[in-house]
Amino acid sequence: MASSVGSLDDEEMDLIEAGGVDDEGEFSPSDYDDDSMTDSSSMGSSIYQHSFQNGRRYHKYRHGKYPIPNDEHEQNREDMLHAMMLEGTNGRRFFAPISSNPLKILDLGTGTGIWAIEMADMYPSADVLGTDLSPIQPSWIPANCRFIVDDVEDTWENGSDWDFIHLRNMLPILRDPLALLRNAFENLRPVCMPKSLIPV
């Protein structure tokens, strides 16, 4: 049976896991290349520092902007939410009508990077970029996927020719959600659209 757009086939679906303990350090910070980062993210080792409150770990960059922890428990929760969304959408990662060969995909607030990594696997010819305040993404990523530390509400420094812009579960914590959506539309190629998934 052929896969629908935005989904993996049944064999690949069996590989999706969420939860458990990260004994092997799979969710260690990515190997960021400080020389290639934008001004908004070129802070060297300081981006890897964290703040601790009430026994939970939080991002240090723009501390307090995102009120949710970034520790292992939260990463497991994010990955479980991703798995539940896939289950609820029959394995579809998006519903936007994008081309079968997108060139550039942007994942805003990528979190653990699981969505960006899966999109990079689905579209090996695409350049997939995930941005987040926390450098918590895994170091084992497809060659066409990369992550940067950045604030999505700042001026975008990563070009304006995106084929697909994805954000999920972020609108309630943004200062100005309409400004972010306007920025997304302005940074898309013509005839493209941003996609925000908001769980019901």
Automatic annotation (TrEMBL):
Molecular function as annotated in GO: methyltransferase activity
Domain of life: Eukaryota
Pfam families (UniProt xref): Methyltransf_23
Region span, Disordered: 1-46
InterPro entries in the record: SAM-dependent_MTases_sf
SUPFAM superfamilies hit by this protein: S-adenosyl-L-methionine-dependent methyltransferases
Key words of the record: Methyltransferase, Transferase
GO biological process assignments: methylation
Acidic residues biased stretches: 8-37
Keyword tRNA processing in annotation: no
KW Methyltransferase (keyword) present: yes
Entry similarity comment: Belongs to the methyltransferase superfamily. LaeA methyltransferase family.
PANTHER family linked to this entry: ABC TRANSMEMBRANE TYPE-1 DOMAIN-CONTAINING PROTEIN-RELATED, METHYLTRANSFERASE
Name of the protein in question: Putative methyltransferase domain-containing protein
Organism: Rosellinia necatrix
Taxonomic path: Eukaryota, Fungi, Dikarya, Ascomycota, Pezizomycotina
